[in-house]
Amino acid sequence: MGSNDNGELYSTKGTSIVHSDEIDLLEIWNNLVSEKMVVGLTTVGLILLSTIYAFSMKPIYKSEAYFFPVEKESIQGLVDWDLILDRQSSYTSLELFNIFKQNIMSRANLWTFFTKNKLYKVYDESLSGLEKIVTLKDRQKVQKAFDQFYQNFLVQESKENEIGQYLSVALEMALSEKDVQLLLSEYLVQVRNNTRHEILASITNEQKSRLLQAQKKIRSMKEIAEVQRSDRLAQLDEAISIARSLDLKEPPTIGAKATIQGVSNQGLPLYYLGYRLLEAERDALDDRKSNDPFINGLRAMQEKVALLSSYKLSMQDFAIVRLDQDANIGEKIKPNKVQIVAVSGVLGFILGVFIALIKVSVVRRKERN
Predict the structure, then answer these.
(1) In terms of DSSP H, where are the helices of the chain?
(2) Do 177 and 261 have their domain in common?
(3) How far apart are CA 113 and CA 145, in angstroms?
(4) Is 166 exposed, middle or buried, given 0-12, 13-18 or 19+ CB atoms closer than 10 A?
(5) 75 in a domain, yes or no?
(6) Rounded to the nearest 10 degrees, how much is the dihedral formed by the CA atoms of 282, 285, 286, 290?
(7) 18 lies in a domain?
(8) What does 303-336 look like in DSSP terms, one character per residue?
(9) Do residues 45 and 348 make contact, with C-beta atoms less than 8 angstroms apart?
(10) 174 and 226 belong to one structural domain
(11) How many domains does the chain have?
(12) 3-class SS letters over 131-159
């Protein structure tokens, strides 16, 4: 009996008996059975380590809230203001929804909330005693913690092809389920209030600006009217002086009789009216206590000022978004202990088989040597 170049065992008659390069499954099984302690201990050991790891991890909870655009009735107060201020563009439900969305996702708003509540202590235990950010090293640590917080703050918008528009806001943190809910709820209330304050401040500033412009216009109209009255008195005094020097008491009767309208249209001298008419007009102007009834457009401007002054807008008069679901009690998302242990068991078994086969191979090689 011998072997050929292909590693086959053969008899002297040339008949092949065993192929040495073929896998003998029965032999592998027998080897694994003989090393079952190695496989078992490896599997159990890895399961034990993964169990310790899973139970030592801080649980992470996720709280989530949903928002929709408000109905038109909820922004009627803003629509009324658009009409009063005669704004070229008016607030819409979608515009308010987008403003709220931008404020929700604002890193500046999140940073303020993050530092105010000292949430960096959750992400870095070395910062647990930090009350005020002073050194550059502390700021770098806080910034790193904030980056992790920002990644755990999830905002999801509805897709273009979806019916209806919504906004999902979620927060994942290694705190208790109640604390995560309270933090998210507090931030959402803060952003909603700040957004309403922002819009209210914008409208109030525009109201003040329009009011000041209208009041300035009224003062200007009154000042101009008084100047025009003084000019008219000066013109009348001069015309009366000329008419008296000419002893022209009444308008001339030669030709077409001079009238106030005729003097104005034909460019005739004012004294052509005679000093009797001119003195009557001058006396009336002297006795005038107010020019207001004679100023064109004054009453309309005063009405506008009264309207702008009397109309008040508060945060309760309009809404920004419609809350569909408030921040819920945090749902535990990490760690998934069952999954960790199950995966560890499978990996432990595979590792145990691998170690057992290597051990058998090493022992066989030593025996052959």
Answers:
(1) 25-34, 36-56, 76-85, 93-105, 107-116, 120-123, 136-151, 177-245, 260-266, 275-287, 298-310, 337-368
(2) no
(3) 13
(4) middle
(5) yes
(6) 180
(7) no
(8) HHHHHHHH----GGG--SEEEEEPPPPPEEEE--
(9) yes
(10) no
(11) 3
(12) CCCCCHHHHHHHHHHHHHHHHCEEEEECC
Residue 20 lies in a domain: no
Residue 134: which pLDDT band, with cuts at 50, 70 and 90?
Answer: low
Instruction: Say whether both 104 and 201 belong to one domain.
Output: yes
Residue that has been written with the tokens 């100023």 in this structure: 295
Give dist(CA 298, CA 327) in Å, integer.
54
- Put residue 247 in one of left, alpha, beta given phi > 0 → left and psi -120 to 50 → alpha: left
Indicate whether 14 belongs to any domain: no
pTM: 0.67
351, 250: one domain: no
Q: Which domain holds residue 345?
A: 26-57+341-363
Beta partners for residue 65, in sequence order: 169
In sequence order, which residues have a C-beta less than 8 Å from that of residue 71 and are 6 or more positions away? 93, 322
Q: What is the pLDDT of residues 217-260, one digit of tens each?
A: 999 999 999 999 999 999 999 999 999 999 999 887 655 555 55
For the CA atoms of 181, 183, 185, 189, the dihedral, rounded to the nearest 10 degrees, stands at: 180
Cα–Cα dist 283/59, whole Å: 93
Q: What is the side-by-side strand order in the sheet with 8-10?
A: 2-3, 8-10, 16-19
Provide the pLDDT for residue 162.
55
